Amino acid sequence: MTPPGHRTLSTAALVGVLALTSACGSDDALRAGQEPPAAPEDIACFGGSVSAAGSSAQENAMYTWIAGYQLACSDSLVLYDSVGSGAGRSQFLESAVDFAGSDAALDEQEHEQARRRCADGSPAVNIPGYVVPIAVIFDLEGVDALNLPPETLARIFNQDITHWNDPEIAEHNPDAELPDLRITPVSRADDSGTTENFTGYLTAAAGDAWPHDTGGTWPIEPVEAAQGNSGISEAVEAGSGTIGYVEASHTADMATVSVGVGGEFVDVSPDSASRVVESSPEREGGTEHDHALELDHGTTESGTYPIVLVTYEVACMRYGTEREAERVRAFLDYVLSEEGQEAASAETGSAPLPADTRTRLRASVAEITSVG
């Protein structure tokens, strides 16, 4: 039964849940050609269900985690609704789901709301679970690679550069045959952590070329808009002269932009993206077990890809019952395990969390408890 207040599952998650529920731990839970995700020998299983909602950026990773966990724990059911980070945080704060996936950490106001949602006024915490680059994808006949500095990217998405043969684009791509074709930027229609991280990058790196604040909603009237990472990917692929931004596992075989960093152009990859996270400190002012990061989107370090998102698993430190606490604790521990991180990386191209980081985060998850 769908938990009260839980919305319709996304297609990918629903297919996964139905397959996993009916398969009772068999390989039928997997996508065609997918290897069974490994699970730790000491994995903690629970009976019943745990529900979550949020980031579409981690949708593919979550499908993999659900498959791995439920294959190891046949009596457990994990429900995930890929509705976008903003909606996921709202559902969590309204107690409609047990935890949320969000590409942006809870802000100060949301932390206050969370103390009313969590048991005994306990805090909610941001636990980094998924680190992945945001790729800038495009569809332009005859062109399979582009170099774009941050100022040029900002002017394209701000609709100041409107045609592909603009001199500013041509300057950095002398060997490309750029057509006199109108550029169609595709942005998110929903409140999105991917948008918040992408606009955060433009704010930090593009200077006056991006005259907008960082935020989860697109700041200007869009040329074309789509729901979720999958929606942008489909819109860019179906168009001509289109360009958009997606979590890297949604790029399929589409062309991607190499981004200007310092005096070079850097390709999107897990290795180049992980360098930003490794050097990013935790946000000041948080509680002991809150691990929100201050990402340096404006870095000029060589070989570093700066457009990165970290998806957080947002959970209470105390729940009303031990049953709730146990289920959240067990599943998030699997997400943060070496096996869970490697499974997501193999499926999506994400950067697995370093071992010392995983140890620290799992120690925080182990402290999730109940009032009873």
From TrEMBL:
Keywords: Phosphate transport, Transport. One of its GO terms (molecular function) is phosphate ion binding. GO terms for biological process: phosphate ion transmembrane transport. The keyword Transport applies. Residues 280-299 have a biased composition (Basic and acidic residues). It comes from the Bacteria. The keyword Cell membrane does not apply. Phosphate binds at residues 55-57, 85, 103, 192-194. Residues 48-339 form the PBP domain. InterPro entries: ABC_phos-bd_PstS (IPR005673), PBP_domain (IPR024370), Phosphate-bind_PstS (IPR050962). One of its GO terms (cellular component) is ATP-binding cassette (ABC) transporter complex. Residues 270-299 are annotated as: Disordered. Gene3D superfamilies: Periplasmic binding protein-like II. Belongs to the PstS family. This is Phosphate-binding protein.
